[in-house]
Amino acid sequence: MKNIHANIKQIDKTIKEEYIKQTYMRFLKLKGEQIESEIRSSIAALGLFLNTDRVYIYKFLDDATIMQLSYEWLREGIPSRRDSTQEELAYQYPWLMRKIKNNECVVINNVEDIPDEAYSERDMMTKHCVKACFIVPMTVNKVVQGYVGLDSVCSSMIWQQEAINMVQNLGEIWIAYIERLQQERILRSKLNDSMLILDNSDVQIWFLKNTTVYGAVNNSHARFFGKSKEELEYKDLYEVFSPETANLLCKLYWDMFQQKREAINEIWIEDSRGINRLLQIKSKPKFDLIGNIEYLVCTAQDITEQRKTQEDLFNAKKAAEEANSAKSQFLANMSHEIRTPLNGIIGFIDLLMRTNLNEEQSDYLTQINSASDILLFLVNDILDYSKIEAGKLELEHALFDVHALIKESVKLFSSKVNEKKIKMELLISPEVPEILYGDPGRIRQVLNNLISNAVKFTEVGNIIVRLVVLENNEKYIKLQFQVSDTGIGMSQELLLKLFNVFTQADATTTRKYGGTGLGLAISKRLIMLMGGVISVESVLGKGSTFYVELDLEKYKIQDEFSANNWPKIEKNVIQSPVNLSEPMPLFLSNMNKQVTGITDLTSNQITQNKYYNVLLVEDTVANQKLATAMLKQLGYKVELAENGQQAVFMCKNKKYDIILMDCQMPLLDGYEAAYIIKTNGELNQNTIMIAMTAHAMEGDRAKCIAAGMDDYISKPITMIKLNNIIQKWLSKYLCHQSDT
Q: Is the pTM of the predicted complex or chain greater than 0.90?
C-alpha cells in the first residue's frame, strides 16, 4: 500500500478502516511462505504510514517467560532493538510485561514520563534512544501471544487513539497469520519427518483427492508400479497407467470413497514386472467440517505370499481332513467287515458250548473262543485308537465298585497265570473306599492291558497288583494302581518310547510275544483323558512296575443306596492279599451291570420269554441263523425280515414286542426302515427297536438313536449280551404298562 500521509497528526477513521481492510484482503490470498513476506511489507508500510522510526513484533514462546523478536522495520539510519533474534527473558521488564499480560496498551508520549517503578524499562528505552513509544498486546482466543511496538527515536510524540486502534486491528491480523505460519512450519516439519519415515517404509502409502487423482505418495507405492514419486503425485491415473490398470484402480477407489468409513479391500493388480500381485488396501477417510470426504489415506501391503501360504495350509488341512475321513471310513468298514464274521464265529461258539461236548471238543472250542476274543480285542484297540485320534472318545461318569473291578481284572488272568506256573497277588490298601465315580469300563481296559502285559512278559517269579491311596480330601481321592512283575524288563532306551504307537519290547521278526503295540499307547491316552498319569519303572532282565494315578470322585451313601445294601469287606491294619476265590458281590447288578451280567438263564425265564414276539431284521445268512437260534434258545418267538423294505411291510400288518434291526442292508437300510416304522407305522410306532449292527465307530449309536431306535448293541453278540438288552427294555416296557 502506498504511503498516504507521511507525517500526520490525525488519522481519518475512514482511511484507517480502508487501510486495515486492504491489508486483511491481501492476507486472505496468501499461502505458505508468502505470509512472512507480507508481514514484513505490512509493518514497513505501517511505519511509513504513521511516520514512526521503528516497528517491531515480539512473540512469546511456549514458555511465556521467554520472548523473541520475530519481525522489525527500521527507518533508514535507525539502529535495531536487537543485534540478533536471540531469545530474551520477558520478565526483565516486569512493569511492561505486567501491562501486556493484562492485555493493556502501553502508551508513552515521552520517555521522561515513565513511572519510577519502570526503571528497567526506562534503561532499556534510553539504551535504544527511544523518545516515545506505544505497545499493543496481540491475542489469540483472548490469550496474549505477543505484542506490537512502535518507537519514535527522533522526538517525543503524542500518539492518537485512532493510530493505537489501527495497530490493535493490524496486530490481530498479524498474530493470526504468525500463528498459522508457525503451525504450518511445525506441520511441514512433522510431515517432512513423517515422509522420511514413510518413504523408507515397505508399506505402500498414498493420499487420494478423488477417485482418479493422486495426492502425495511414498516411494514404496511408486516402486510397486515402477514409477517415481513425481510421476504419480497429483497426477490423474489415466496420465500414468494403462487404461486397464487405471480402470481397475478407479473402480476400487470409487468403492472406497462410497464406503465413507475405514475399510479393507483386496485387489489383484500387475506390478512393474507385469506379475499379478494381491494387495490388501486399508483406506481411512478424512472429513471436512460438513461431513464430506476431503481425501483418503491409503495403505497397502503385498499379501500374495501370505495368501498363498494360507491357501497351501487350507489345502493341506483339507487334504488331511479328507485323509482322516477316508481313514475313519476305512476303519469303520474294516470294523464292520471283521465284526460280521466274528459275530458268527463267537455266536456259534457260544451256542456250541451250551451243547453236550466231550472233553476234546470242549478244549477245541475253548481255544477257538480264546482266539476269537484276541481278534475282537485287536479290533476294539484299533477302533479306540481311531476315536482318540479324532477326539471323539467320550468318557462315562458312573458309580462303580473299584474293589470288585480290580478283582475281576485279576481273576480274568488266573487261568493263564496257573498255566505258566507263576504267582499273582492282589493287595488293596484298607484306606481305599469301595464305591467311587468314574469310567469303570475304561479303567478296566487299562488294568486288563497292564496285567495282560505283565502275564505275557513274565516266565518265572510273580506278579503283584496293588491299589493304594495317595491323597484324600472331602470330594476326591487320588488312587494309584500298581502292576509289578519279575519279567523281562526294559532298557532305558525303550522306556523313552514305550507309550508310542506300535512300540514293543521285542520288535524283531522272531519276537515270541506277539501283540500290536497299541495297548500301552491307548492306555496312556485314556488315562490322560481321565485327568490321570501313567508311568513305569523298569530294569532290563529284572522286571517292571507300571503306575496309574487317577483322581476319582467320592461316593456319598445318601446319593443312591443305603449303606446296609453294600457288603462289608474285612480290612486289616500294609495290607493283606485279597482272596481271589471269593464270589463277586451281588450288589453289582444294581449298578446297571457295570461289571457282570446274567450268567445263565433259568427254565422259568425261558418259559416267560415265549410270550414275546421278536422281529429280526438281518440280511446276512450266517447272522440270520445265529440270531434266530439264540433267540429261540432264549425262548422268544422269532420272525425274520431279510431287509429293511420287508421289515416295513411286516410292521404294517403285525405288532411286535421287540424289533432287532441291522443297519447295513440292501434295498432299504436299517436307518431308513427305523424312521419309516417309527413315524409312519401305526402298529409298531411304540415298539422297542434295538440296533444290532457291526457298526461300532463313534457316532454310530447316535445315528441309530436319531433314526428312531431305542438302543444299540454292537456285534459280535452272545446269548447273555442279547438277552440282557432285551430284558432291560422289556422291564421298562412292563413297568410303563403297569403304571398306565
A: no
